[in-house]
Write a structure and sequence with these properties.
mainly beta; five-stranded antiparallel β-sheet; four-stranded antiparallel β-sheet; 9 strands
Length: about 100
């Protein structure tokens, strides 16, 4: 990854699973958009403590036009709130710093 490149991902989550939106050590990124195909909660975390930012309780949704500054030890995670179906989570942003 290099400064200015897109920071992105796309994963499938089973009910109750979560994904960390977290750059590699020494990399900083800004996440602008997170998309979900089902019910999910968005958290800010340091790996120990979590802050609930928001939850989507409809069949699909997105958190768009945000500027979440994240590092390897201060990052986002998305948890599926579904009880019986797999959902997709995708995100995009930009790399802002790399050691």
């Amino acid at each position: 990854m290099a400064v200015g490149q897109v920071f992105k991902g796309f994963v499938s989550l089973e009910p109750g699973e979560e994904v960390s939106i977290r750059p590699s050590s020494g990399v900083e990124a800004i996440v602008h958009n997170i998309y979900t195909s089902g019910m999910a909660s968005l958290y800010l975390t340091n790996g120990t403590d979590n802050i609930l930012i928001d939850s989507i309780t409809s069949d699909y949704g997105a958190w768009v036009d945000f500027k979440f500054h994240i590092t390897n030890d201060y990052y986002l995670k998305v948890k599926s709130l579904e009880v019986s179906r797999t959902i997709n989570i995708a995100w995009d942003g930009v790399i802002t710093y790399e050691e």
